[in-house]
């Protein structure tokens, strides 16, 4: 549904809408198949994690990849303004990570949050490495 943001005086409304959309998908944007791969990220040497994240996202179905790239490009741009908005890649990962990937059965355990947050933080912080240097055309700012 279209939302007239002028009716709301809360800057958090767009983020709530986006997180709700992601949470209500029948399958997570990063797919159920990727969940275990994300959980295994901590077993990868830290200098190789961005490359492993790139491999994981490139294995997504095409439509999922396009949406993930678009979203992470946006979050990367938000993180570039963290001095003003206080939303670093790490903070954004904590807010959005659990809405991007979850297990097929059951809920996410506290132990599972760390690799999800690290994975999401790498996607945001190392956007250019993981996705290439260009944002999707609709995201390019003048």
TrEMBL record:
InterPro entries: Rho_GTPase_activation_prot, RhoGAP_dom. PROSITE patterns: RHOGAP. Residues 1-131 form the Rho-GAP domain. SMART domains: RhoGAP. Pfam families: RhoGAP. This is Rho GTPase-activating protein 8. The gene is ARHGAP8_2.
């Amino acid at each position: 549904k279209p939302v007239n943001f002028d009716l709301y005086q809360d800057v958090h409304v767009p983020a709530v809408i986006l997180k709700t959309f992601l949470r209500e998908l029948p399958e997570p944007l990063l797919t159920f198949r990727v969940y275990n791969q994300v959980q295994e990220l901590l077993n990868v040497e830290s200098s190789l994690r961005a490359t492993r994240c790139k491999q994981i996202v490139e294995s997504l179905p095409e439509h999922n990849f396009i949406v993930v790239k678009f979203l992470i490009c946006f979050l990367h741009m938000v993180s570039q303004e963290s001095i003003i908005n206080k939303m670093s890649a790490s903070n954004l990962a904590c807010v959005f990570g659990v809405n991007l990937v979850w297990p097929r059965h059951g809920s996410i355990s506290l132990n599972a949050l760390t690799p999800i947050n690290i994975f999401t933080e790498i996607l945001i912080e190392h956007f250019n490495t993981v996705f290439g240097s260009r944002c999707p055309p609709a995201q390019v700012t003048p």
